[in-house]
Amino acid sequence: MKNKYVIGVDLGGTNIKCGIVTEDGEIVKKVSVKTLAKKGPETVIEQMKKGIKHLLENETKKIKGIGVGAPGIVKPKKGSVENPPNLPGWGKVHLGNILEQEFNYPVFLENDANAAAIGEMIFGAGKEIRSFIFVTLGTGVGGGIIHRKKLIRGDSGAAGEIGHVSIDYKGRKCNCGSRGCIEAYIGNAHLVDRAKRSLRYHPESKLHRIIAENNGYLSPRLINEAAKQKDGFALNFIRESGKLLGYALASTINVLDIPTIIIGGGTAGFGKPLFDSVKEGAVDRVLKSLKPKVNILPAQLKNDAGIKGASALVFYNLKKKSK
Amino acid sequence: MKNKYVIGVDLGGTNIKCGIVTEDGEIVKKVSVKTLAKKGPETVIEQMKKGIKHLLENETKKIKGIGVGAPGIVKPKKGSVENPPNLPGWGKVHLGNILEQEFNYPVFLENDANAAAIGEMIFGAGKEIRSFIFVTLGTGVGGGIIHRKKLIRGDSGAAGEIGHVSIDYKGRKCNCGSRGCIEAYIGNAHLVDRAKRSLRYHPESKLHRIIAENNGYLSPRLINEAAKQKDGFALNFIRESGKLLGYALASTINVLDIPTIIIGGGTAGFGKPLFDSVKEGAVDRVLKSLKPKVNILPAQLKNDAGIKGASALVFYNLKKKSK
């Protein structure tokens, strides 16, 4: 039994997903429980304990620790989670202490996007890469920065907010209150809004029919379907969106001198047209010395990326300690 | 004799400035020699040796090492300087080895903007601050990132290029080839260009007379003079420029979760109107949790910042090693 085992917990707004994960990033056992977020932190914590207990039932493997990826501001040293969005009533919860007392394993917490970045470093596309910027495209645009095999955490653990790099100070209004944030162009709702606005000038697009068939509903997935059916509008729209992301990344690459980007999340499903245009946009805008180095890679942790990223926190932190 | 002494060398395009510096950042002896950049790297290196030898003449203090701040891409571990702008014919020069062999002291090299950031951390405005972004405003807009008391170097030591954060992907053309880089708004030449363009709509500004008196010449210093004479246009122009810098910094602050900014360089001489508006712009655009934390400070190393920054490299690296 050469393998080391850890537990990864992905605390989401709807479900808490827990798994026992090997040091190769393989999930050997998995359980999902409802978050019951509306019932407040005590219930959510009970649910989390329930999930972990379920995993440990009849389990003979030696577990090295528990990693938790949580939304909001996470302070790993204090083991606290503050005001996670989608989890009402939390304020500040010392989740680390609570779980350590319950299970008597070392517990490592991290913001979920940062956990995903560490997951890519330990198990995924970043395994052989010293420094990279991880970007996740979904409802929001988030990320994490790995610099010389270490997570850049910033002052309070909130570093990596790639979604709030602005590409236009007079641009689209973002939910955060600023203007021109790349999230205000390619976050799911904004992506759909932009597509719908442009569609007015493209009566030829298949998307009109697709929207009609879906009772007026449009999603990134449906745009992708149209693109796969070679709809010119949908393809151009994906390419244009990729370029804008490339522009935002160019600023980030210039500041950090980190030209490798790993992109995950639902919208990464746009695939090659997206990745090619992100690269085109970034290469067009980065400093000359960086142009040949720009490298845009798809994330490798797809299903259960949350559990794997959370579990990677244990391997990452135990490795740091053993040094 | 409680003090430790090191040598700092500021390799500029026109002059090489060398000094013996105490661990309090005081320069006890100083010499400046011509760079003679046009004569190529061998001559420049001879000049550098000449300057250092001059410092060491009749010197009884024990010197702990030599720090060099150089333009271009500097690889501290290899001790090499690559293609420094303003120093023709360099290609790649192993400056570290050359100086170590000549003087038999440990030599530490760093890009000049990064050296200045380390200078502020060791001797200046960043002494008590764990993480900050250093920005220098002059011909170009450069910088360096200090994260938890360490310099973020990026992949090849070029991190900190704050000047090439874009605020508008359709904006002003930058020397780097991109668009909307903040340097294309507030780098000296761009600042003057923008002021001249706006002046057409402001016949009331005192700057018209000042420009006429200077034979058509305008500079940031002259704009500052007008502002100090309460010229409304000049003041507004400085405020507008500061706001734009604040917008560029907001993207950087969001990505790094580092809300403390230290600003140096000639244009920082605009003083309070600039600093206030940088803060206003940044606070307006950063994420909500960061708004109360934004802190914009003037750099403390002014005269001989180059020598002091270079000398700080020795203290910084020896401290790291002794840990």
Number of domains of chain A: 2
Largest interface, Cβ cutoff 8 Å: A-B, 50 and 50 residues
- Oligomer state equals homodimer
Supply Rg of chain A: 20 Å
The assigned structural class of chain A equals alpha/beta
Helix-strand string of chain A: EEEHEEEEHEHEEEHHHHHEHEH
The largest pleated sheet of chain A is described as: 5 strands, mixed
Shape of chain A: globular
The name of the CATH topology of the largest domain in chain A is Nucleotidyltransferase, domain 5
Distance between the termini of chain A: 24 Å
Helix segment tally of chain A? 10
**Known CATH architecture of the largest domain in chain A:** 2-Layer Sandwich
Mean pLDDT of chain A: 95
- Which superfamily, in CATH terms, is the homologous superfamily of the largest domain in chain A? ATPase, nucleotide binding domain
Uncertain segments of chain A are none
The level 1 CATH classification of the largest domain in chain A is Alpha Beta
